[in-house]
Design goal:
This protein is of the alpha/beta class. The protein folds into two domains: about 220 residues, 3-Layer(aba) Sandwich (Rossmann fold); about 220 residues, Rossmann fold (3-Layer(aba) Sandwich), CATH 3.40.50. The protein has 14 helices and 24 strands. The strands form five sheets. Strands 12-10-13-15-24-23-22-19-20 form a nine-stranded mixed β-sheet. It has a seven-stranded parallel β-sheet with strand order 3-2-4-1-5-6-7, sandwiched between helices. Strands 17-16-18-21 form a four-stranded mixed β-sheet. α1 runs parallel beside α2, α1 crosses α7 and α5 packs parallel to α6. The longest helix is centred in the last third of the chain and has 18 residues.
């Protein structure tokens, strides 16, 4: 009972899991209940909304990127003393293979967690009962504790579906949500708009919380989360001894001067796993937030981390901040360690081509990026390190994920600086990824610190070395 928990899943992606999850979390928080949010899979945007709803970080539980001891250690570290709400991804049983590896169902079984199933009832009635019955029998070890109907057309529609499911499946219907306007939770090509870009995000969450109180039985859902629960899985609350589990939980070395690692945090660059930042601190770094939108130059730093985001929606303002672009380029050419992912990679290029013009970027790499209407890379990645770079040894393997609409339009030194071979995924160019130049590594692949435990110590080590190198230089003559 130390870990009351519930997984919220659906029959497919786009069925309304995030709005229900965020609204439920917000409603419980407004009632004074501490809620620990988690997101199954590598998603950043949904996790951002769940974090805002809960008023605390949302941690990702991704069984492709993170091993089982790491998953259990992270859950145990962040779930204690709260009700855990875990939003699934895609459909309940959708995984990497016919056996359902990496599926939401597998995560629910790993955490021995009950499941709340969200049903998109658009133009359906009795068929919903057949689908629920199919899910309950497909894997009896998945504990479907209740369902919530979504996008119901009215009271008659709701009554028909509710009675059919409860009569034939014996599973309670714990809510029925009406069709919503897209204005409540606007969508973009990657799903929900990031909360950081949503000027009225808190207002939207309050509306979602009110919606859950009105149209779902939040009390019965809470009862489902609290029990009766099966015993917690072995090792929960007793983190394993794997390197991935330890990296998120152990403090950094005491008594040493911390290197300063800048992290680009603003509306243009916001995609960071909380575990990645915790891992940098655990490895001994001091995190310094930097805005590439508003700040005019880099402060004194020992390394710089530029995560993903939407530089394309901020292309004009990033381009107009010429002093910052020149500051980043100068620091990179001088040898400061820089690690960049996806949107950060785009920012380090020469320019970004958009419909409204071509916008200059930092110019660290002689690459011009463009933007397509469809994803140019989407899914998990497996990389083999084939070339020298500041952070990963040649021959090592990295697991991550990519989701980008941008691609390379022109490259003066085409492919010359690529150091990753794609064993799985699209990458940047011709089955390769990972642009490395100076002391910079930029890649379309996002990594998770629990699944790539060598990443944070390597970045902190490079930061210390760069700091010591600068200090060893002779002082300039007056």
């Amino acid at each position: 009972m130390d870990y009351p928990r519930i997984v919220i899943s659906a029959l497919r992606g786009g069925a309304g899991k995030t709005i229900l999850t965020a609204g439920l979390i917000a409603a419980w928080r407004e009632a004074g209940l501490p809620v620990a949010p988690f997101k199954k899979g590598p998603d950043y945007i949904d996790a951002g909304w769940l974090a805002l709803a809960a008023g605390r970080p949302c941690f990702n539980l991704d069984t492709f990127l993170i091993d089982t001891p790491g998953i259990l250690a992270s859950f145990a570290a962040h779930a204690k003393g709260a009700v855990s709400v875990i939003e699934g991804n895609r459909g309940l049983f959708d995984g990497a293979d016919p056996q359902g590896s990496t599926s939401t169902a597998e995560l629910a079984k790993l955490l021995v967690s009950p499941v709340l199933l969200v049903l998109d009832c658009t133009k359906s009635t009795r068929t919903m009962a057949a689908l629920v019955m199919g899910c309950s029998h497909f894997d009896p070890d998945v504990d479907i504790r209740g369902v919530v109907l979504n996008r119901v057309a009215g009271s008659r529609h709701e009554t028909n579906v509710r009675n059919t499911i409860e009569t034939h499946c014996g599973i309670p219907v714990l809510g029925a949500l009406p069709k919503l306007s897209k204005d409540d939770f606007p969508e973009r090509h990657m799903g929900l708009i990031p909360a950081a870009e949503h000027a009225w995000a808190n207002e939207a969450l309050r509306a979602a919380a009110a919606l859950m109180r009105k149209h779902t039985d939040t009390g019965r859902i809470l009862e489902a989360a609290k029990g009766p629960l099966q015993p917690c899985p072995p090792g929960l609350g007793q983190p394993g001894e794997t390197q991935s589990a330890k990296s998120a939980l152990e403090p950094g070395a005491a008594g040493t001067e911390k290197p300063r690692i800048g992290v680009a945090r603003d509306s243009a660059f916001q995609f960071y796993y909380p575990e990645n930042l915790l891992a940098l601190e655990a490895a001994g770094a001091e995190i310094c937030p930097i805005s590439l939108v508003h700040d005019t130059s880099l402060p004194e730093l020992d390394a710089f981390y530029i995560g993903g985001g939407f530089p394309e929606t901020h292309a004009r303002v990033l381009a107009e901040n010429a002093s910052m672009r020149k500051s980043v380029q100068r620091a990179a050419k001088e040898g400061m360690p820089v690690y960049a992912e996806c949107g950060g990679l785009m920012y380090l290029g020469e320019a970004l081509v958009m419909q409204d013009g071509t916008w200059p970027m930092a110019g660290v790499f002689p690459v011009v990026f463009n933007l397509a209407e469809r994803p140019q890379g989407h899914g998990y990645t497996v990389l083999e390190v084939t070339g020298a770079n500041p952070f990963y040894p040649v021959g090592s393997e990295i697991r991550g994920h990519e989701f980008h609409y941008s691609g390379i339009e022109t490259w003066k030194d085409e492919g010359a600086d690529l150091v990753f071979r794609m064993r799985r995924g699209k990458g940047a160019l011709k089955g390769m990824d990972g642009l490395s130049k100076y002391n910079v590594l930029a890649t379309y692949t996002h990594v998770h610190a629990l699944g790539t435990p060598q990443w944070a110590p390597a970045l902190v080590k490079s930061a210390r070395e760069w700091r010591d190198t600068r200090r060893a230089r002779p002082a300039a003559l007056p």
